[in-house]
């Protein structure tokens, strides 16, 4: 018999098993973020030329560990928690096969520990991309495979939950938009993990001597079907989190279900093709293949992101205007709850992802422009804007929301929590922008010594490059401080936060489980459709519902166009190539 | 109850095929795996596999 | 409140879309198509493109080709390691080899002359990163890429390795001189 509790603050229903799984996955994710953050500090202090902290071998080891732990473990553990939330809680359904979900969780933990152990043993400093024929220890690959299997089980539990909810009619009509976004993330995840298995299992067999040769070009091709698609899981999932937070904080409804869902549909069709933009300067792939895939089939997936970029803030604006904040173009935004870290994290995530991550990503992913950017430190600059300011900050905002709702704890240090998103965003923006700038001067990524000290061939980057890397170093330290604030607040709240449920259980020091008396065997009432009167009310088709958002969107577009052509100009000045 | 089911069915008849596709996660899963497998993976593998050997 | 509830209409596809969204989608679509057509247009009218020419090759064969070229066109040696410097004739095939942790040999080219530059690695992945112009090409072992390059400015250029290639990755450099 599935047991449920209803959150008295939000009215959300939690299935007990699902709830514990969400907690376990979210906590595991935050632990990974903690480790990744410590490693980030070491990395960024080494790349700050004036500090140059670690020796070379340790730097490459720590950099490998930072990439794997942050990009793979932190992000995916949290993603699994989001899937269970979107499938079970939002649909008021029991989670399908909780035992399998626990098995998946255990596999993910085992895999993560195995891979991290391999890296810290020192003989697997191959970077997370682990391009063959460079060889790591076998359990480096095996751990990743086991982790992926665990995550795959999580995806199937989510799909199973959709089936259960449908059969048991726990909701009316179509699934909510947020759940739909999670479904898209899940679908992309399945392709991603399948590609990972396709390449990492043979590589594991090669590392133990069972297979004699793995083709390096094929490896890069299939590896990026894993490596890049996994970023598209993040995009789909964090867009869903934006919609969720807009709904929770403002009662916002999508401006148009049709537009938002059709945009997600474009993701399903085209987003994963973008893996190609890692291979634009590779030998052996034709121009036709590169053009078609790297443009996500004519940039139709970029179109989808530009649509979400309008409809998410647009939904907030419409909701705010309905509450009477109608003065000028931006009163709705000025009077938004900027001191609520749930909102500020989410909105910074949206703007940072669009302006810094999105624009730079599309520009550097242009077939020819890649020539002046590939493998420079511009690349880490770009993806810290997407995966840190975008995804990680969205996850942080969601965590602030979940502390009371899921863990039933009052957040500690509310003043620090107000500041945290700004500190983190400031630091990370400096990292992103100044790494990008240094990249345009040619500074290499994954590189221990930009000074090439003692090399008989000698080479000096321009002095500006050192300055830029120094500023990025300062930004990195600020970001680590912001990240540490997040960890202290989140973990501290779980351990020391005031219990919001009196009948809390014994093991409360870890936030779970709640006391049995919090749950009942009663099945929640069927999830109703959104009330419909409001739709007609705001659907005055002739006028602009969200003029402020439209202005912001045009600012984005203009910046995009200018930056795009600036890069073509730079490209046109380098040596002729054909 | 019987009544409600009837209205459900009648409404479903009018639902556009696009919506039916979007409401069907398993169809979407198929598309989402097939597209990149064909255009990215298979096409790419064929190109690399069919490269000529250096002519010297 | 409603982004996480089922849509208000069962038949939500039929709800008309507001004018604002339609206008934005149209603008964004036009921009996406412009970006798309820039790429094929640059292949026709632009001067910086990576062509399709690539071959499979074994390390031994490629090494032999490099040695053959050095024998024919070597002009001097550089540094204590006596790395050969090659000055190939105009329009010649130039074979550059990447290996742990060196770009081999060094090249002396002429401004505004086009050469067929061959790139290959005989061990791991490396990254051809020509500084200070900032041209970056992936070098994959077993795959020889051919690029027609036309230096447009005289001077001393350095090839940095910008694909991680093991413990001495940061010391992997090469040189190209371009003469008037
Ligand atoms: C806490 C603040 C963080 C700082 C200061 C930071 C800083 C850095 C630096 C300096 C690099 C090395 C760039 C290079 O030399 O190539 C790096 C690499 C990387 N970071 Fe972070 N980072 C942070 C957080 C994160 C997070 C949260 C994620 C993922 C969600 C992440 C993902 C990565 C990845 C994937 C790499 C590339 C590793 C590789 O090249 O294999 N970072 N980071
Ligand atoms: Cu190298
Ligand atoms: Cu290298």
Largest sheet of chain A: 2 strands, antiparallel
Separation of the first and last Cα atoms of chain A = 67 Å
- Mean pLDDT of chain B comes to 82
Largest interface: A-C, 115 and 90 residues
**Helix fraction bin of chain B:** over 70%
Terminal Cα span of chain B: 79 Å
| Computed CA radius of gyration of chain A, to the nearest angstrom | 24 Å
Let me know the number of strands of chain A. 3
Features:
heterotrimer; A: 578 residues; mainly alpha; two-stranded antiparallel ribbon; B: 56 residues; binds protoporphyrin IX containing FE; binds copper (II) ion
How do the strands and helices of this protein lay out in sequence?
The complex is a heterotrimer of chains A (578), B (56) and C (180).
Chain A: E1 4-6, E2 13-15, H1 16-47, H2 56-89, H3 98-120, H4 138-167, H5 177-207, H6 216-250, H7 257-270, H8 287-294, H9 296-322, H10 331-334, H11 341-364, H12 378-405, H13 414-440, H14 463-496, H15 533-538, H16 547-572, E3 576-577
Antiparallel strand pairs in A: 1-2
Helix pairs in contact in A: 1-2, 1-3, 1-14, 2-3, 2-4, 2-5, 3-4, 4-5, 5-6, 5-7, 6-9, 6-11, 6-12, 7-9, 8-9, 9-11, 9-16, 11-12, 11-13, 11-16, 12-13, 12-14, 13-14
Chain B: H1 2-14, H2 17-22, H3 25-49
Chain C: H1 19-45, E1 54-56, H2 59-73, E2 74-78, E3 83-86, E4 93-99, E5 102-104, E6 106-110, E7 115-121, E8 126-131, E9 135-139, E10 143-150, E11 155-161, E12 173-179
Parallel strand pairs in C: 3-6, 4-7, 6-12
Antiparallel strand pairs in C: 1-10, 2-3, 4-5, 7-10, 8-9, 8-11, 11-12
The structure holds protoporphyrin IX containing FE (HEM) and copper (II) ion (2 copies).
């Amino acid at each position: 018999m599935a047991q449920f509790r209803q959150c008295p603050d939000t009215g959300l229903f939690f299935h007990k098993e699902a709830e514990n799984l969400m907690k376990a996955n979210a906590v595991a994710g935050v632990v990974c973020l903690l480790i990744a953050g410590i490693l980030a500090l070491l990395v960024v202090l080494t790349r700050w030329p004036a500090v140059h902290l670690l020796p070379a071998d340790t730097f490459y080891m720590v950099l490998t560990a930072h990439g794997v732990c942050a990009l793979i473990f932190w992000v995916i553990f949290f993603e699994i928690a989001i899937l269970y939330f979107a499938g079970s809680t939002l649909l008021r359904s029991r989670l399908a096969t909780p035992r399998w979900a626990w098995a998946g969780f255990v596999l993910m933990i085992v895999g993560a520990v195995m891979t991290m152990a391999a890296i810290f043993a020192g003989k697997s400093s191959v970077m997370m991309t682990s391009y063959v024929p460079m060889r790591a220890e076998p359990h480096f690959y095996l751990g990743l495979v086991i982790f992926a299997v665990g995550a795959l089980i999580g995806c199937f539990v989510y799909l199973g939950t959709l089936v259960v909810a449908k059969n048991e009619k726990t909701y009316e009509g179509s699934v909510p938009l947020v759940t739909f976004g999670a479904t898209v993330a899940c679908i992309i995840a399945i392709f991603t993990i399948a590609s990972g298995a396709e390449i990492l299992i043979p590589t594991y067999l090669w590392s133990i001597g069972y297979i004699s040769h793995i083709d390096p070009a094929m490896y890069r091709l299939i590896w990026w079907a894993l490596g890049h698609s996994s970023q598209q899981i993040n995009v789909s999932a964090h867009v869903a989190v934006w919609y969720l937070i807009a709904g929770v904080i403002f009662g916002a409804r999508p401006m148009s279900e049709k537009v938002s869902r059709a945009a997600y549909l474009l993701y399903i069709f085209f987003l994963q093709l973008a893996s190609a933009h890692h291979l634009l300067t590779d030998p052996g792939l034709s121009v036709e293949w590169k053009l078609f895939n790297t443009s996500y089939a004519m940039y139709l997936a970029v179109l989808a992101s530009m649509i979400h970029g309008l409809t998410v803030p647009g939904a907030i604006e419409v909701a705010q205007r309905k509450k009477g904040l109608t003065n000028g173009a931006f009163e709705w935004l000025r009077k938004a709850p900027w001191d609520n870290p749930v909102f500020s994290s989410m909105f910074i995530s949206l703007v940072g992802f669009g302006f810094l991550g999105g624009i730079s990503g599309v520009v550097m992913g242009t077939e020819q422009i890649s020539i002046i950017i590939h493998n420079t430190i511009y690349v880490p600059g770009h993806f810290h804007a997407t995966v840190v300011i975008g995804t990680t900050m969205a996850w942080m905002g969601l965590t602030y929301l979940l502390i009371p709702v899921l863990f039933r704890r009052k957040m500690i240090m509310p003043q620090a929590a107000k500041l945290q998103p700004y500190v983190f965003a400031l630091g990370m923006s400096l990292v992103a922008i100044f790494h990008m700038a240094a990249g345009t001067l040619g500074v290499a990524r994954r590189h221990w010594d930009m000074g090439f000290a003692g090399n008989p061939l000698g080479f000096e980057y321009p002095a500006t490059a050192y300055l830029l890397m120094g500023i990025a170093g300062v930004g990195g330290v600020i970001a680590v401080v912001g990240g540490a604030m997040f960890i202290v607040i989140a973990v501290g709240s779980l351990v020391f936060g005031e219990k919001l449920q009196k009948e809390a259980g014994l093991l409360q020091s870890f936030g779970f489980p709640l006391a049995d008396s919090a749950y009942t065997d009663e099945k929640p009432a069927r999830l109703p459709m959104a009330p419909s009167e409001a739709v007609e009310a705001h659907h005055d088709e002739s006028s602009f519902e969200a003029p402020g958002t439209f202005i912001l969107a045009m600012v984005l577009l203009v910046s995009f166009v200018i930056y795009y052509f600036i890069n073509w100009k730079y490209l046109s000045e380098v040596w002729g190539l054909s | 109850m019987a009544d409600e089911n009837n209205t459900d069915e009648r409404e479903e008849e009018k639902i556009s095929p696009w919506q039916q596709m979007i409401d069907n996660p398993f169809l979407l899963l198929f598309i989402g795996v097939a597209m990149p497998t064909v255009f990215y993976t298979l096409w790419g593998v064929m190109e690399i596999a069919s490269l000529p050997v250096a002519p010297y | 409140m409603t982004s996480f509830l089922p849509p208000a209409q069962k038949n939500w596809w039929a709800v008309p879309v507001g004018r604002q969204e339609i206008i934005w989608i149209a603008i964004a679509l036009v921009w996406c198509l412009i970006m798309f057509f820039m790429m094929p247009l640059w292949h026709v009218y632009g001067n910086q493109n990576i062509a399709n020419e690539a071959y499979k090759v074994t390390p031994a064969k490629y090494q032999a080709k490099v040695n053959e070229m050095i024998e024919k066109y070597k002009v001097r040696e550089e540094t204590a390691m006596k790395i050969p410097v090659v000055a190939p004739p105009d329009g010649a095939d130039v074979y550059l080899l990447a290996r742990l942790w060196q770009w081999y040999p060094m090249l002396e080219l002429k401004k505004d002359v086009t050469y067929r530059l061959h790139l290959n690695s005989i061990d791991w992945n490396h990254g051809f990163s020509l500084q200070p112009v900032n041209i970056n090409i992936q070098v994959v072992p077993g795959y020889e890429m051919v690029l027609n390059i036309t230096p447009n400015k005289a001077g001393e250029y350095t090839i940095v390795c910008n694909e991680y290639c093991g413990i001495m990755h940061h010391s992997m450099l090469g040189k190209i001189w371009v003469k008037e």
